[in-house]
Amino acid sequence: MIDGQPSDTALQVAASRAAHLRFDPAPHLLEDVHAADLLGPDAIAKVDGYGQNGPWILQENRLFMPLRARYVEDRLREGHARGIRQFVILGAGLDSFVFRQPTDLSDLRVFEIDHPSMQAWKRARLRALGWTLPDNARYVPCDFERSRVSEVLAKTDFDPNEPAIVSWMGVVYYLEKPTVEATFRDLSSILSPESEVVFDVMRPWDELPERYEEIRSVLAQYLSGAGEPHINRYRREEIIHTVQESGFPDVLVEERQELERRYLAPLETDIPLSHRFRLVVARVP
């Protein structure tokens, strides 16, 4: 991202979540009623781009971005039932969980970790809205290319002796692979048993249907212009090996068919599940 500015892709993720609520009929994957407000004055224009007449790739994102957030929150609820009380969101962007958190999860400690520029923009937006940060939320600035997550969490009340659910959605593919590996090693050094890191990765171009190749150059141009190019992609076997070698022996790579059954089957939508991403869980036994 560009220093001093909010992440453009983070704004687009929020727009896709707001668009899902606006354009798709109930039931929704995620009821993110705060996304449009967090976007600010440009919300209407951004959200409109994901409408029925928008590009197919944006419509696809309108479904997948809420789906991956719902997936994380489902893992969080399952973890909470096992006694987990810490939730770490790496690359939080305009995530709104702390404002939507169910009352039965209010005993969580929530740590939003993000680039200082993005976090400063978000906090300014919250002040403009007059929203008060919940008592169980902590905002922690961190540049993943320059700082370790363990270092910034050590300055908070995060307890490495207690398990945690870590969300790392929409970040891995913006980092060099050595940085990804170093972050996993760092996380494995501070996460106690029963913890999980829930994240997504991009699949290689040669694994995708032909329609993606047709927009490849357009996507690359947009991301480069935003200062947020995609710089890595992982095959299934490679990401499993990377995670295991970094200290997480237990790795779950969700199958596309299972995600369709669990999340898309109950919906009234013709939008297909994106082929671009894999959802992965790294677990500490």
Short note summarizing the structure:
The protein has 285 residues and is an alpha/beta fold. It is 43% helix and 13% strand. It has one domain: Rossmann fold (3-Layer(aba) Sandwich), CATH 3.40.50.
List the helices and strands and how they pair.
Layout: H1 8-23, H2 35-39, H3 43-48, H4 56-81, E1 86-90, H5 97-100, E2 109-114, H6 116-129, E3 137-141, H7 149-153, E4 165-168, H8 177-190, E5 196-202, H9 210-213, H10 216-225, H11 236-245, E6 250-253, H12 256-264, E7 277-283
Parallel strand pairs: 1-2, 1-4, 2-3, 4-5
Antiparallel strand pairs: 5-7, 6-7
Helix pairs in contact: 1-4
What does this structure look like?
This protein has 285 residues and is an alpha/beta fold. It has a single domain, classed as Rossmann fold, CATH 3.40.50.150. Helices cover 43% and strands 13% of the residues. The chain has twelve helices and seven strands. Strands 3-2-1-4-5-7-6 form a seven-stranded mixed sheet, with helices on both faces. Helix 5 links the parallel strand 1 and strand 2. The protein is globular.
Per CATH, the superfamily is Vaccinia Virus protein VP39
Q: What integer is the average pLDDT?
A: 94
Rg, nearest Å? 18 Å
Measured by DSSP, the beta-strand proportion falls in 5-15%
Strand-and-helix sequence, N→C? HHHHEHEHEHEHEHHHEHE
User: What is the domain tally?
Assistant: 1
What is the CATH topology? Rossmann fold
Total strands: 7
By DSSP (H or I, 4+ residues per run), the number of helices equals: 12
In the CATH hierarchy, the architecture is: 3-Layer(aba) Sandwich
- Name the assembly state: single chain
Can you tell me the CATH class?
A: Alpha Beta
Tell me roughly what share of residues is in helical segments.
40-55%
Low-confidence stretches: none
Structural class: alpha/beta
